[in-house]
Please model this.
Amino acid sequence: MIECIELYGANTGNSLRAAISLAEAGVPFFVRRLDLRAGDQNQPDYLKLNPAGKVPTLVDNTYSPPLIINQSNAIIHYADAKVPNHLMPSEPGPTRLRVYDRFFYFVTDVIATSHAGFFLHQLDLNEAARPLDERALENMKRAEAFLEGDFMAGDAFSMADIAAFTWALSVKKQLPWKQLPRMKRWFEVMSERPGVRIGLRAFQE
Ligand SMILES: N[C@@H](CCC(=O)N[C@@H](CS)C(=O)NCC(=O)O)C(=O)O
Model:
């Protein structure tokens, strides 16, 4: 059955980032779970939606032809456009720019760095991956300084928190929480948010 908005994904950081952003913005979506170990992402029907064979993929069937979005961070912006003001302020200005600044810090300096390391691990190049793993972790630790307010880009929750949280979750055991008191409190607050909880459950078996 065709649903209005479908999110294809698996229980991975990129899919969770997309699911949390939709749930936090209040965009209803229908979950299509893929089994990456079974290779669902490389089946011909899925490759028509996402030629890279990656998750997530969002399909909005209210458009004709359906709107297809493959990048988790573009799905965050889709959610923000659909229901403005939940993931960042819609008003242009310094507060919104701060959100972009912090959001891209996590996307480029933490997530992308870690993603490059992950790729090397997949090739068994574990020694080569280590500096990238360490750099991503170090950059995450430095974000303790961002938490002057309750959230990563000030006093309001934003897409910067979604980017940071989904990655922090994946290295929860490696972060030196005693040295990161603000981040520890932030992580606990984030874990309890209803939208975050819905997103985290989206692809659980
Ligand atoms: N830049 C993409 C990356 C997507 C990505 O790398 N997804 C991984 C899971 S986290 C994947 O689908 N891996 C399956 C595979 O490579 O076969 C995004 O942010 O959405």
Q: What stands out?
A: Residues 94-122 form the longest helix (29 residues). Helices lie at 13-25, 44-49, 72-82, 94-122, 126-142, 159-170, 181-192, 194-201. Residues 12-14, 36, 41, 53-56, 71-73 surround glutathione (CB under 6 Å).
